[in-house]
Amino acid sequence: MRSLGKKVLVLAVLLAVLVAAATAGGAKPKPKGPLLNQFKFRGAEFTVGSKKFTEQLILGQIAIQALKATGAKVNDQTDLGGTSVNREALLSGKIDMYWEYTGTGWITHLKQTKPIPDSLKQFLAVAKADRANGVKWLDRAPLDNTYAFAVRKEMVKKLGVTKISDFKKLLRTNKKAATLCIGTEFSTRDDGLPGVEKKYGIKFPSENLAKVDEGLIYKLTDEGKVCNFGEVFATDGRIQGLGLFVIKDDKKFFPIYNAALTVRLSVFNKYPKLAAMFKLISKKLTNQAMTKLNAERDIRGRFPEEIAKAWLKQNKFIK
């Protein structure tokens, strides 16, 4: 019995030594409760903006609800406007942060004409260059909300367009059928229609183009009365919900559009722990996850705030 007691004592001591060694080596215990409990921004005040479309409204609310969970006061300026409106608001100090896309930052804001066809390299390049403008890019999300063209599935065979290069033949043989619904912003951007036409050597007649609110494009494309084809976003839940077919970008024109929270540098310098907090959140925002979130809004009609809270709870960020 004494022998057994000594063995138990030795094992207990050994276990205690191993635990002490792990702690001394810098191992940190996992935080108990919601993941955001480890971040405290009580007394801080932030203003969060967003663009007008579904994905941006949801991402904006994810940022708002996450910051509120840390004790911060948050002013909601989501649904602020288009890309240029949010960028100007960020630079002028009207908002402190909003989610932007790496391709948009590189091409639209930094005026670069050649996107970098590598997700990490593109992110690092835009983050480094934009620092000179007083903008901090927090870690990018895996989601890539690049542009695409879509057509209703039942018309794919009839129109013969499965890749963007096929538009050239359609415009030559059946020009009236090559109708396209696009947003106003997409119609002028270098990474939008002008760039596509230049890259693929095609030209849509002005009478074939319908410039409409981007939120209406999916329905109009599905109906096929105003347009057979439409500009869409790759992570939009309505693509699957409406049974649309995404046309292949066979020359890989469209840049990579990873989402990342952009923050005014002066704000970030005051609250550098924003980086660690949103790194945890961003890594969970995959194409699959974002498509489901977008569908919650566009197919099921739920409010962005409600969707954001449910997602944060599901991923154990908040309780």
What does it look like?
The chain has 319 residues and is of the alpha/beta class. The chain folds into two domains: 44-144 and 258-314, Periplasmic binding protein-like II (D-Maltodextrin-Binding Protein, domain 2, 3-Layer(aba) Sandwich), CATH 3.40.190; 147-247, D-Maltodextrin-Binding Protein, domain 2 (3-Layer(aba) Sandwich), CATH 3.40.190. 44% of the residues lie in helices and 16% in strands. The protein contains 14 helices and ten strands. The strands form three sheets. It has a five-stranded mixed beta sheet. α2 (54-69) crosses α14 (304-314). The protein is globular and about 65 Å long.
SSE layout and pairing:
Layout: H1 2-24, E1 45-51, H2 54-69, E2 73-81, H3 83-92, E3 97-101, H4 102-109, H5 119-130, E4 135-137, E5 147-152, H6 156-159, H7 167-173, E6 180-182, H8 193-200, E7 209-211, H9 214-223, E8 229-233, H10 238-241, E9 244-247, E10 259-264, H11 265-270, H12 274-282, H13 287-298, H14 304-314
Parallel strand pairs: 1-2, 6-7, 6-8
Antiparallel strand pairs: 3-10, 4-10, 5-8, 5-9
